[in-house]
Structures are given as structure tokens and as C-alpha cells.
Prior knowledge:
Layout: H1 3-24, H2 45-48, H3 59-62, E1 68-69, E2 72-73, E3 75-80, H4 92-100, E4 108-117, E5 120-129, H5 134-148, E6 155-159, E7 162-168, E8 175-181, E9 184-190, H6 193-202
Antiparallel strand pairs: 1-2, 3-4, 4-5, 5-9, 6-7, 7-8, 8-9
Amino acid sequence: xxxxxxxxxxxxxxxxxAACASNSGAATPTPSPTPVPTPSTGASAxxxxxxxxxxxxxxxxxALIPDTLGGQKVxxxxxKGSDFVNSTNSNEEFKTWLNSVGKxxxxxxxxxxxxASGTSGSAIFAFRVEGxxxxxxxxxxxxxxxxxxxxxxxxxxxxxxxxxxxxEDPDTKTAIYLYGTADLLFFVTTNDTKVAEExxxxxx
Length: 204
């Protein structure tokens, strides 16, 4: 796992699992920073998720993610970095990087959306680090990915009208598309090229 993706997923799962625990009365488990779960059956996202409200604390960023992909509803959530700054899953390495550019978790917002359908899943992650150019965010993402996977190779491409960096996760064989604008970093993960094109077309 690279720093950015691990940070995103661990943070999102922390908030999500905390919501589960508050509804069930159980203690919050410690999630592992793994990709958004991929269902093995034809269950919909609403059937996969327990009955609770996902966080929606960065609505402006969340709104940048399309509501549907491939004709399926996208389940979305968002948060501010401060939402999990006290979490045991807060990524110290990521916070150190933020400090190096004069930022803190309070300058970060993140959102995600995913579709779970059939035997494949697609997801969009969005980050905003206020005042940090997207090129710097993309390079940091690629560097950290490369440090954990010597087989990860990035290529430039135009997908959905956007100039992106594309690679394939050697473990899951899922394509990863990096795209940035202003102080925003998006990454799309999917094994369906048509979904990737549709997702990127909708991004700003």
C-alpha cells in the first residue's frame, strides 16, 4: 500500500466503522488499509453496507464525484482530515509529509464513491490539500507507490478527455488512474475501461 491510498482508505474505513460501532454499541475495530471491498456476488452496494449514514463532512468535494457510473448508483462519503486526526489509524507518515509542505490534517479533505456490482468494483477517491498543487500531490503518490511496489509502472494517457497517469496494481490487476487539477488529486480504480472513461469525463 502506498501512503496516499492507505491514508485514504484507512481514514474512510475508520470513520465508517466508527459509525457502525455507534449504532451497534460495539467497540470500533481497527481496520486494515485495504481497497474498497469487491463483492463476490451480484449484490448491490446498498445490500453490502449495513444500515447507517456514511459521513458527509466535505460536501463540496463529495459533489465532484458522479452520482452514477455504468448505470449504477455511486455510494459516496466524505470527511475533513480533522475527523480522524485523533484516530489510532491516523497515518503518521502522511502527517509528516503534510508538515513538510506547511500543512496539517486540518488542511485536508477527502471523499470517495464506489459502485459494487456483479463480480467487479470501481471507486473514485478525491483529495484536496489546500494550497498544494496537484502536480506535487501526484508525484508524491507515484513516489510512495513506487517505494512499495517495484513492478508498478506509470504511463501517460488521455482517458475521458483528461490527461492522466495510469498503472496497474500488480496485486489486484486493477487499473489506477491519477488525475489532478488545482489543489485536487483524484484517483480512479477499476477494471472496466468504460467506467474509467465515464468517471474521468465527469471530473472537473
